[in-house]
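Researcher: Next sequence.
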Amino acid sequence: MTALNRVPSLMVRAGTASALTIAAMGGSVVVPGVASDAAAATPATKALQIAASKKGSPYKYGATGPRRFDCSGLTLYSFKKAGKKLPRTAAQQYNKTRHISSGSRKAGDLVFFHSGSNVYHVGIYAGKGKIWHAPKTGDVVRLQKLWTKSVWYGRVK
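Model: Next structure:
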């Protein structure tokens, strides 16, 4: 039975069922960029959920959480909490993943930004062309649309 089947039909027809109403009635609410409970079984989707839970955390160079992060600190923290070990830097993380094509990417894969052969940034793919990442000094952990095609993808083993 879906969440909407549990919501009184008047509210659904009127379009007034709020997320709180649906949740209060035992339904589930879909949050963009966060995997569903059914998909949460894999470490990659757990890591994605953990990264999303850090939304708004301030960027700090060299920080690995739990309150502040740099880009690779966020991926390191998220995968560690999901039961997978990653090295510290974006470049080291790239070297420890199974490299995949953009056509094979899935939510929870790592997205590596590069200039030539130099990997300089990493985020977690959220699906629909978006990533969770810790962008730069003065910014916060957030969901953002990919802004370049100069990326490589890696799947944590």
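Model: The mean pLDDT is 83. The first strand starts at residue 97 and ends at 100.
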